[in-house]
Amino acid sequence: MVKAHGRIDKDIAMEALQMLQVDEIGLDSLDHKLLSTLIEKFGGGPVGLGTLAISVGEETITLEDVYEPYLLQVGFIQRTPRGRIATSRAYQHLGLAEEGKLF
């Protein structure tokens, strides 16, 4: 079905992004799945990329080359020698409380 007779305005663009499950800062459903898995299943990390990839059903190379760069850029994850960790910004974006942090 063609909408807006071939014209794209803000409302049409927002509707398309919503249909694709892309949020207001550009995260899609797999980005959300990665972050929520990292936080809920692995306590925010650190967790190895291979383990994280298996947990979300993706290839390691896909996570590293496609998803991770943007999550690093917006400050939602950090790479450490022990694995990936979720940042405070990731918790805030998902509306989750950081447990066990005193400061």
From TrEMBL:
It comes from the Bacteria. Gene3D superfamilies: Winged helix-like DNA-binding domain superfamily/Winged helix DNA-binding domain (1.10.10.10). One of its GO terms (molecular function) is four-way junction helicase activity. Residues 24-94 form the RuvB winged helix C-terminal domain. Keywords: ATP-binding, Helicase, Hydrolase, Nucleotide-binding. Pfam families: WHD_RuvB (PF05491). GO terms for biological process: DNA recombination; DNA repair. This is Holliday junction DNA helicase RuvB. It comes from Candidatus Hakubella thermalkaliphila.
